User: Fold these one by one.
Assistant:
Number 1:
Amino acid sequence: MENANSEREQAKDGEIGLIDFFAVLWRRKIMIIVITAFAMIGVLVFSIISLMLPPETSPLPNVYTSRAYMLITEARSSAGDRETLLGYGLGRGPTYAALAMFLLRSNALLDSVIDEVTFTRYGDYNGLHAALTRSMLRSGLGPRHNENSGVLSVSFTHIDPAFARDVVNLVVVRLESRFAEIGLDRGRVEQDALELHLAEVFQNILLLDEERRRLEQSVAFMPLTGGNIPAIMADINRAAMEAEAMRQVYTQLRVRHEMLRANMAAETPMLQILELAEVPYRRAGPSRARICIIVSLAAGFFSVLFALALEGISKIRRDPVAMLKFKGGINA
């Protein structure tokens, strides 16, 4: 019985407290409405002004996001069937995707993009972006890797859509170049070495043929000038034999080079560009409607709290005992 009475009293107290709360809001309704309306009008005017001002001077300019897509292949086809230099296969250890994400944040790649934007064909875009920095580029880039599809998307957000497109394409090209420079694709490294060796062997063949022709010409004038014909003939035979040996080496290298090219053509590249970035025509942000709603709700909540605080202060001032306690607490 006592528990039932206690529950009824608690419910009644809660009901009275709720009534008091709404009573306070009703008494302070003008203040609450004025504060909320002022905040709504202020944020609306701010949004309109930010939309009308030029992007470089606007406090809240429109931003555009341009995006490019690349395919990262972790596993090699049966034609190559080689493990990566980073780990021990798909799903174990570091991966090409992890390396790509690291390179996209590296100072070397960012600096190369900044140099290209600042000093070369991309110019300064009417003077707006001459001061592109590492922090700006690093914060603006948004790389994401989808493990299921292996697609790496690289995006950049900026107030100039054309500039955003150019930066993304530069980053993608630089990333592809960095992968090639690191030498992770052993087939590509071997192909470059073979091409260099082929050029060297071909040059040696030309030199030996030139030496043989020079010796043969000297033999033709030997009866007039005198000389050791057998020694010169030995040099001619040596040059001819060395040239023939070099031709055989060149043939073997050429066959190996063509076989390697065929194997590499059958493989999927570890990193390939699927789609370059284009100029975005739809803005990525900001959502001014959302900002207006958030500011209006925050202003309404603040005005309610302010009304409750004023009501509490008013009650304290009207209560002599509370004022005496308050003054006594201050004196203490």
Note: The first helix runs from residue 2 to 27.
Number 2:
Amino acid sequence: MRGMCAAMLTLEAIILGLSVPVMISVEDVHRTLALVLGLGLAVLCVLVAGSLRRPQAYLVGHLIQVAAIALGFLVPIMFFVGLMFAALWFGAFFLGRKIEDDKARWAREAAETGQDD
């Protein structure tokens, strides 16, 4: 789960960083606001991707998805891009959790099978 979620956050950091010039040039968002929001979220994505060993980091990852969608109020295409990354994030989160649960179950079954011999 950690690897898939970290990959999603890393890709999202790139997209959020690339959104800054779009906010400034195309949507005429004030430069300071665009830098703080775009680069701030990008840096936060990288920091959270590196700290996914802690359960609290996943909560911050969920909040990043909300913030990325909220950028749509400044750059309308970010509604779509944010929703796309949120879907990828939650897919990685829930699929990763299911894979980890299956691995744990298989390990328990293997241990039980080994004890029966």
Note: Helices lie at 2-26, 31-50, 55-70, 77-116.
Number 3:
Amino acid sequence: MKRVVVTGMAAISTLGETQEQIMQSLRACKNTTRHMEGWSEYQGLRAHLYAPLIGYERPKDFSRKQLRTMSTISVLAVDCTRRSLEDAGLLGDAVISSRRTGVAYGSCVGSMSAFAPCVKLLNEKNAREITSGTYVKLMGHTAPVNISLFFATKGRTINSSTACTSGSVAIGSAYEAIAMGRQDVMLAGGAECCNMLPLAVFDALFAASTRNDSPETTPAPFDKNRDGLVLGEGACTLVLEELEHAQARGARIYAEVVGFGYTSDGTHITSPNAETMKGAMVEALQMAGLRPEDIGYLNLHGTGTKNGDMAEAAATSSVFGNRLPVSGLKGYTGHTLGACGALESMVSIMMMREGWYHPNLNLHELDPECEGLDYITGEGRCLDAEYVMNNNYAFGGINTSLIFRRWPN
């Protein structure tokens, strides 16, 4: 098995668009939930909250030809990937357009605007707004395909549209492709743009927060008084590279990917299963050759839904007991769906390198059903962790666990 390291990282997030901005926002305990003006006009929609990107502008050098196949999700994915390649020192490198570089990327659903011509075709029997780029903008693998087209990659193109684990499955799949010697470099991550469809679904399930008059108080994962999740948008790309390849070019290394666990519930499409969640963590530990006590910090999925939080707390405590410091990012960014697995992995790596870990935002009174873990609160915590774990779970009963090792500076 080849060793796999992270040599580039970039995010377009509600917390900022650089690593420095994101860390500053975390230290400031910045909640980015907003009341969305105009959403109250949608009949039957009770939740009017979202964590939107504010001030983001599409790159001006994206050509008309390139944009013909790009939805908003693809724009975010390509822009973020270019930034990560620049961070890795690989932008324009010949290896990117060789068969030794691939793409693994995901999102939950396509951009709503891309579906509009299709709805018109079905409802009004009018095909005039259907263009040659319509399907390419809304197809499930629009993000990885557009990344591949933009950077002319010739290796594997892996689509990981697995709901809220899309980003983590992408990183895990990229890790396996390199570890098995099939690729030297993989561009891995996820993206999600503002989309009312998943919000309406969560609202129908009574799983979305309706604190429309106090957006700064929600989401509140693991809190006794939480009332559901808040969705958000963003993108994150990690550049994964075979260790010897990275060292040969003198690359800066952020971390090493050492474990990936991936299980399915096989029981219910929306109800979480603590036992198979546990299985993903155990599998990741076994792959890494580690014991539970070797992990110094765990990034929780932490959606802010009652059933999800309870199952995750039970699964995590069954593996680690109450000794492991834990916190989750969604209190800051909302649930970024297809992007969260990548964004939360990046933030975990950043904190591991800095030695400071953000607290659980809006956790004021712990739900008794979620006891048994060492939740970080207050101003965060300084820790010396050699290994960190990031866990994500999704509709369809999909469970993922990633383990990263701190690279000596």
Note: The chain is about 35% helix and 20% strand.
Number 4:
Amino acid sequence: MRIVFLVTHLLGTGHLARIAQIADAFANAGHEALVLSGGMPAPLAAPKIARLQQLPAVHSDATFTALSDAAGDIAGEMVFAARIEAIRVTVRDIAPDVLVTELFPFGRRKLATEFEAGIEAAQGALILCSIRDILQMPRKAGRKEEAEERLLQLYDGILFHGDPALAGLDASWPLPNTLRPLVREAGYIGDSAIGTGSGDDGHDEIVVAAGGGAVGEAVFGAAIEAAKLSDERWRLLVGREHGIGTLPANMIVERVRPDFRAVLSRCRVGVLQCGYNTAMDVIATGARAVFCPFEGDGETEQLHRARAMAERYGTGILREADLSGETLARAVGMALARPKPDYSALSLDGAMRSVGIVEAMLEEKG
């Protein structure tokens, strides 16, 4: 099977990381898998086995109001024309049996022209959409119906990478009856391997991280103040350059590291946002967690997931509006007083299950 994945991460790296794991699962199964990535280069989130082709990159700030190019300027027509042409040429040359669009048409509406160009170039291929457990409902009238019409007209299936026992699709995006047959429940995407890393970093520490994107300053600032009120050792992992001031003696700061899971597995508590991949890291490592979900510009996805995790596993949750050194120190103390959660009932084999689902769909299509 030849399979192409179209993905553009705009703020964090979660969309690319999830698609990379799925693409690697296909490559491991002997299929020819290519990821066409339109976000900024992110080596830690890139596929390890499947091929990666980088498009002219675009990215966004937390408002998602405009897209910038790799140099930080507003992306113009030439950038988008080059992206569309690269997608068309690559997809036509590969002639995939399957084309998978990450999030679109449930999101990435601003990039609709290039996703549709890829679908058109994949003539005769099985067309699938890959989505996470929780989606962001459009706020403008008619956008939901527009996305669902695209699904009805262009797509053969929807790979749902979640578990209804934690968060079902209908909770964030109720589908009309006409589209329900398209949904294939593939399960959560997460590598269960923790790794050991080097040394003993994270042991008996409070580990603070906010993913690989551009947000997290509020969490970092509160963590610095919380550490001043704490006798614990704190480790701050930052994804990009941040203007972090003087640190208390019981805190160190470093860049996000490839052995993050190993560090998290040894910590006393993880203070984290609640993106998809971060939640999977917590589940895989069995860590206690205090989630500080990102809520910028009306975003509800991370809050929804943090609430679901708190309800099912008793993890902590501290909303952005309530975030301060005092409230974070209190939330960490409460987490330390609770036993470690048991996440064992939640499977993370969604990448492998996706391979089986797509193989069966392709065979059925003939």
Note: Residues 77-94 form the longest helix (18 residues).
